[in-house]
Amino acid sequence: MRSPSIRLAVVLVAASMVASSASAQPVFYPAKGQSQKRQNSDRHACHQWAVQQTGFDPSLAQAPPERTGGVAKGALAGGAVGGVAGSFNANAGRGAVAGAAVGGLIGGVRQHNQNSRANDRQAQNMDAFNRALSACMNGRGYTVR
Fold first, then answer.
1. pLDDT at residue 8, rounded to an integer
2. With contact defined as beta carbons under 8 Å apart, do 119 and 22 qualify?
């Protein structure tokens, strides 16, 4: 029989792993009859300006690497601790299994949180860049959506 707290933890981990939606990229419309050549020139200049303002260039950015191994590390550590704790009750095997399950869960949560923080930083950088780019294009006479 599984503990309700373990089931709750599994549900919370699954819920926290739902991906957040990424910000939409801005779209620029010429509000003053700018030619395509002028739009391209303005877009390039504003891109460079936004990079200078934010320190982030999305054309060079790569997705943060997805780190793995947290579940295995946690399971190993939890199994060891559970085995030692279980040996005091002459039940080292059950203690190791329970410890591995809980340790694996905790390790997976930690790994997920690290990956989420890296993805959040990337999204924040992209949002700041898009705001700067939009401000520049708006200042050059484009409608931003």
1. 45
2. no
